[in-house]
Structure formats: C-alpha cells, structure tokens
Amino acid sequence: MKSTQYSDKVLDHFRNPRNVGTLEGQDVAVGRVGNPVCGDLMEIYIKVRDNVIEEIKFKTFGCGSAIATASMITELARGKTIDEALQISRKEVADELDGLPPVKMHCSNLAADALHNAIENYLSREKSAQKSLEKRRRLTKRIKGEKEFLHRGVYHELVDLSTLKGKRVLVLDRGATSIEVAIDLTGQTGRVIFLTGSKEISAGPELKKSLKQSDVKILYESEILEIKGTNDVEKVLIHDLNEDEEYELFVDSIIMLQKRE
C-alpha cells in the first residue's frame, strides 16, 4: 500500500463511522489516549454486562485514519468478553480495514490503546467495588461466639472505659468512633489492639496522626473468625487476609461498635 493510499474499508469507516458518541452511567468506563506527535486524541466508552462489552462508543479528534480505526475497533470489540477484547491488537485493526498507509499505522495503535485503557479502568473499578463489598460483608457478618460472649467481654456499645483498666482490649475497625475509642483506651491500659480489614486506616489526617502517635497496636488486613473462652472472652481466632493464615490472640475484651460510619 502506498504511503497515502486508503482502502475502501478505511474510506467507508471514515465517511460512515460506526458507534460515534458517548455513554453515560455508573457502569460505563472510559479510555482516553493521545498521540503527541500528530495531535490525535481518542476516547472510547464501554458498558460491560456479565463480563461482555454490551455497548461501545467513541469520540476522536484526529485524521481520517484515526476515525476509521476507532470505528473499526468498536465493531471488533462489541459483543466480546473482556479477555477477548484485550487481545485485539493494532495489527488486527489494520488488517480488518484491509491495511493502512505506513505513515498512519500509529492510528491503529491509538485505537487499541484507547480500548485497552477503557478495559483497564473498568477492571480497576470492579476490583475496588469488590473490595468494598468484601469489607461490608466482614463488617456485617456475625462472628462465631459473638452472641455467646455479648456483655461477657464482647461489647457492641461504648462502655465505661475504666472497667477495662489493665485488660487486653481488641477494638474492631468501625470508623472514626472506634479509632477514638482505641486511642482513649490507652489511658486505661497499655494493651490495646486495633484490627482492620484494610491495608491502611480510613480516617481524617488529624485522627490518623493521633492514632500513629498513640500506643495502639494495629493489625492490618485481618478479620476475626471466632471468639473463644469458658465463661468470659479469653482469645480470638484471627485470619490474616494478606498471608491467608490463621492464628489465636489472647484478649480479655472486644469492642465492636454496631454503628457503621
């Protein structure tokens, strides 16, 4: 193909581009890329359902080849699974258009990059949503032994902290209030542990600073599986989410506030 010769397919997709426009909604992901050499800009919008690209649209500011490649890649990606769409290459785009002039091959790369960027943004958002869901499930699920030891070492509400003087206290992450309770407890006992399922503490900068400067020990990426004891709480079985290991921890009291923040 000559350096400036376009195939009939390229001309068709340039003159009659498919799937032009945008998509809106919480389930829409967008990929945005640009080429600093030629100034082309491209956006691809995807709506995914059951791991399949159900709808796809594009917007581009660029030459005829950029429009044609964006149009073609939306046709190739629609109806494909996420994994299948990730396999679409710039060569496949160019081949489906019966070739591109050598000086315009970068346009097919731009289209593939925009699609892949949209998919990556979708996957990143889904991963974040899944983590949030898992966190909510951990917060709401009943822990084995929780009901049995209620008021015998397990507390769902704030108690007179002086009654915990000198005891080994485990405070579960239930937001800012639980962090404040853990910090306040250090005035009654030097054995306070704050347990969270997250990799980092979710709180304002001042509260984070206060927690860091306190004597509270923090267990990250952890959850309680079971509360054990005879008459009162004696220990808990903890699951280390990062290492996927279980171990026992001796405690006297557990504060798991019911108010969610």
Instruction: Give the CA-based shape.
Output: elongated
Q: Characterize the biggest β-sheet.
A: 5 strands, parallel
- Helix and strand string, N-terminal first? HEEEHHHHEEHEHEEEEE
Approximately what portion of the residues adopt beta-strand conformation?
15-25%
CATH architecture of the largest domain: Alpha-Beta Complex
Report how far the terminal alpha carbons are from each other: 63 Å
> Largest beta sheet: what is the strand line-up?
4-11-5-6-7
**What Rg, in angstroms, do the CA atoms define?**
28 Å
Number of helices, where a helix is a run of at least 4 consecutive DSSP H or I residues:
7
Share of helix, binned: 25-40%
Gist?
The protein is of the alpha/beta class and 261 residues long. The protein has helices at 8-15, 64-77, 82-86, 90-96, 105-140, 176-185, 205-213; strands at residues 28-34, 41-49, 52-61, 154-155, 169-172, 192-195, 217-219, 222-229, 233-240, 245-250, 253-255. It is built from seven helices and eleven strands.
Descriptive overview:
Residues 5-127 form the NIF system FeS cluster assembly NifU N-terminal domain. This is Nitrogen fixation protein NifU. One of its GO terms (molecular function) is iron-sulfur cluster binding. It holds the Pfam family NifU_N. The chain is 34% helix and 25% strand. The protein is of the alpha/beta class and 261 residues long. It has two domains: 8-136, Sufe protein. Chain: A, CATH 3.90.1010; 154-255, 3-Layer(bba) Sandwich (FAD/NAD(P)-binding domain). The strands form three sheets. A five-stranded parallel sheet has the order 4-11-5-6-7, covered by helices on one side. The chain has a three-stranded antiparallel sheet with strand order 1-2-3. Strands 8-9-10 form a three-stranded antiparallel sheet, with no helix packed on it. Strand 2 (41-49) and strand 3 form a beta hairpin.
